[in-house]
Amino acid sequence: MTPSRKIAVVTGASSGIGSVYADRLAQRGYDLLLVARRGERLQNIAAKLEQAYDIKAETLVADLEKEAGLVAIETVLAGNPAIHVLVNNAGIARLSHVTETSAKESLSQIALNITALTRLTHAVLPAFKARNEGVIINIASALALHALPVSSVYSGTKGFVLNFSRGLQQELANTAIRIQVVLPAATATDLWDSSGVPLAALAPETVMPVEHLVDAALAGFDQGESVTLPSMADTGLWEQYDTARSELFAAMQTSKPAPRLLAL
Question: Which pTM value belongs to this model?
Answer without folding.
Answer: 0.95
